[in-house]
Amino acid sequence: MIRRRALIAGAPSLLAAPALAQSAGDWPNRPVRVLIPWPPGGSTDVLARLLCEQLGTKLGQNFVLENRPGAGGNIGMEAIAKATPDGYTQGPATIANLSIAQFLYSRLPFDPEKDFSVISMHWELPNVLVAPAQFCPANTAQEFIAWARSRPNGVSYGSPGVGTTAHLCGSMFCDRQKIDGQHVPFRGAAQIIPAMLAGDLTFAIDNLASYIPVIQEGRMKAFAVTSPERWPSLPQIPTMGQAGIPDFTITSWCAWVGPAGMPRPIIDKVNAAMKEIAADPAMQRRFEQTGARCVWSTPEDALKHAASQRPMLQEMVRISGAKMD
């Protein structure tokens, strides 16, 4: 049963490493390097750039972005984990990095629970069940399920890679709905969308942010979102529950992190700036236009949220059979 868990009290702290003896008074006095563990153009990259524009303005230094994709985000996350914890290396860590990776890999180059200073939650967005309008006759989720079951050779679903929420959602959807589904991994939505529009891929349950333009253009049919409520930017799309698919609530999310041992005054300074950004209606509108919601939390609540998601995601990995060793 997929549902939101209560936040786990006493979650392991990613802030436990000894901090450098440094106040936040003179920080930052040079540009801050932001390592993005995913390719350019994806939702993590786009939303990190929106945040960094504002962080630079509020904190008085440039936040310089550098994409470090590869190995399901592990290359970029390892680089953050091994950076000097002086506040000058930060980056976005997604649900895949902090709450899924440990169930996919028997060995990781970092410990998701110990090797990062978590600063705040950054964004949240749902996945959306979509199919190409030109090749799919269904107009509702239930019609899509019936159509997919009737396909003599089954269906295929795309994801940005093994173990991503798109993969896990697609696998669980096919398992529960008794659909013969074949997973096809891609590098990202920039490759998945053309494959669907060309008729080479049947559907996806992928991050909404990447699909808003093709949904609005009518080239892609959107049947349901995986959030607990309808999403503000596309209120006409029902939730999975409203579409007759119960217990299918899961959102993708991202936290803002640095290496373990960052001085708490610096963490608090960035956290305070992120709180102001999330409270800005103009920034919320910009995030909503991309399909996401700008969020903020204390470092402790971000840690608890990451921990609370792990049992659910571990079960989804088990259903999918995904392994990355």
UniProtKB/TrEMBL annotation:
TM segment ranges: none
UniProt keyword Signal present: yes
Superkingdom field: Bacteria
Signal sequence extent: 1-21
Family matches, as Pfam families: TctC (PF03401)
Organism ancestry: Bacteria, Pseudomonadati, Pseudomonadota, Alphaproteobacteria, Acetobacterales
InterPro entries per the UniProt record, alphabetical: BUG (IPR005064), Bug_dom1 (IPR042100)
Keywords, comma-separated and alphabetical: Receptor, Signal
Name this protein carries in UniProt: Tripartite-type tricarboxylate transporter, receptor component TctC
Family: Belongs to the UPF0065 (bug) family.
